[in-house]
Amino acid sequence: MNSLRIKRVPTVVSNYQKEDSDDGARQVGGCGRNCLKQCCVQGARLPLYAFKRVKEAVNEKASSFDENKEQPMPFLDSLVLGEWEDRVQKGLFRYDVTACETKVIPGEYGFIAQLNEGRHLKKRPTEFRVDKVLQPFDGSKFNFTKVGQEEVLFQFEPSNIEEPEFIPNAPIDVENCASVVAINVSPIEYGHVLLIPKIFECLPQRIDRESFLLALHMAVEAGNPYFRLGYNSLGAFATINHLHFQAYYLATRFPIEKAPTRKITSACKGVKIFELLKYPVRGFVFEGGDTLQDLANTVADSCICLQENNIPFNILISDSGKRIFVFPQCYAEKQALGEVSQELLDTQVNPAVWEVSGHMVLKRKEDYEGASEENAWRLLAEVSLSEERFQEVNALIFEAIACGDGDDKGNVSDYKVEEADGTPPSHEDAGAISSSSYPAAMVSGKQECLVQQ
Q1: How many CB atoms are closer than 10 A to CB 124?
Q2: Per-residue pLDDT tens for 164-206?
Q3: Considering 172, 289, 390, 427, which has the largest number of Cβ atoms within 10 A of its Cβ?
Q4: Active-site annotation holds for 244
């Protein structure tokens, strides 16, 4: 049984990515690049932002979107933007993203189109597996320990006191596996950064509870509803198998944030789970929780279920951590099986988290000039699972989060799931893409995103 592969051309996220094949020639005394590997990191120092641990729940009822109200800028928000602009002045980015044309496409949802012709140029081709969501870390390939220290903005760790701390010049905590925030040198939008949890552990691209909680803390700490974090699993257009989240600023609502939802169930500890309606990609929305960790654990457990069942997915952390969208997807599977039209393939658009959320990053001027809501909808409809398949995934997730709430040591306590909300959708949900009812009993799903021949 042979696994299918696609020749994938990854987006360059570091200026050193194209040079990673030269590691064998490095000298023991240092590689001369001032990177984050053992040859250079000893004795190095970087700024450290220690965030306050949020114990209480994030209020999902109070949306942070208020375009008429000026909010004070939280320190982390100003730190990210200040350090990012410093790297702009130092010429570390591959192109000026502020020069990229952007427009809101007329229509009900207001899909956002950007012409970014520089993002796909000068890429190093690699062979990327699309049939396995979980793959072991391979240190011989590019990973984030190979980036230059000048691309790292700061370390990001929980504070040991009740308040956030900032240390402008702190030792890099190699022994405790520091988490860092670095620039993406091929940015999609202003302030495009990467959050790399426990960078020196060299974790593969897979969700775990601790790392997802870290990402959620960053969204809360930034305190800016226009700063979103995203995640792509392998098979859902992640191109580097080293655990990371992406984030950037976009001062308008994403189309996905405007889509109506219907509550389908509640987990214990106050976490509510909704289904997206009237949107081309079927997905889940998570809100609430008695604490931030309760919300993080429920989402993480759902994503762990997906990756263990070999189902590719994307995550969007929205509204300062109040709403989390999870999209199981199968575009790469269809692509491998030759089920995507040549017209869509010619656009070279890989529908990762930002595109699925409604920010269409286009690489050809003709596609940008002809952008329409109909075209965006047609592309994203190819990303979505079928109704039948989505129901199977839904059952898998509910079964997984109902099996028990394991703590970090593996102890399990009660973790119940309420029955699905049987009330019909409100009038605003009429004509939804999915008007399904949810089974009360759990059924086994299928690992249908496995691509084999």
Answers
A1: 13
A2: 899 999 999 888 889 999 999 999 999 999 999 999 999 999 9
A3: 289
A4: yes
Give the integer Cα–Cα distance in Å for 294 and 209.
10
- Per DSSP, the three-state class of 449 is coil
Q: Which helix (H) or strand (E) holds 401?
A: helix 387-402
Looking at residue 104, the DSSP 8-state letter turns out to be E
Please provide residue 212's backbone torsions phi and psi, each rounded to the nearest 5 degrees: -70, -40
Query: Considering just the CA atoms, what is the radius of gyration of the chain in Å?
Result: 21
- What separation in angstroms does the CA of 41 have from each of 168, 241, 316? 17, 21, 32
275's tokens: 């289904």
- Helix (H), strand (E) at residue 170: strand 165-171
Q: Could you give the 3-state DSSP secondary structure of residue 227?
A: strand
Is residue 109 classed exposed, middle or buried when 0-12, 13-18 and 19+ CB atoms within 10 A define those classes? buried
* Burial (0-12, 13-18, 19+ Cβ within 10 Å), 121: exposed
Note every long-range contact of 63-70, with CB atoms under 8 Å and residues 24 or more positions apart, other chains counting: 63/225, 63/319, 63/322, 64/223, 64/224, 64/225, 64/319, 64/320, 64/322, 65/225, 65/253, 65/257, 65/319
Which residue matches tokens 């700490």?
A: 221
| Residue-wise pLDDT tens digits, 70-99 | 555 689 999 999 999 999 999 999 999 999
105 DSSP assignment: P
The two three-digit tokens of residue 30, written as one number: 């240092």
Convert the pLDDT of each residue in 221-232 to its tens digit. 999 999 999 999
Asked if 330 and 449 count as a contact pair (C-beta separation under 8 A), the reply is yes
Say which DSSP state 148 is in: B
Measured between its terminal Cα atoms, the distance across the chain in Å is 6
Distance of alpha carbon 216 from alpha carbon 194, whole angstroms: 14
Q: What is the helix (H) or strand (E) element at residue 311, kind and residue range?
A: none
Nearest to 173 by CA among 209, 151, 140, 200: 200
Please tell me which residue in 120, 192, 242, 244 is annotated as part of the active site.
Answer: 244
Is a pLDDT exceeding 60 seen at residue 292? Answer: yes
Is residue 218 helix, strand or coil?
A: helix
Strands across the sheet with 101-104, in order?
A: 101-104, 112-115, 359-362
Residues written for the chain: 453
Give the tens place of pLDDT for each residue, 137-165: 999 998 999 999 999 999 999 998 888 89
Contact 379, 344 (CB under 8 A): yes
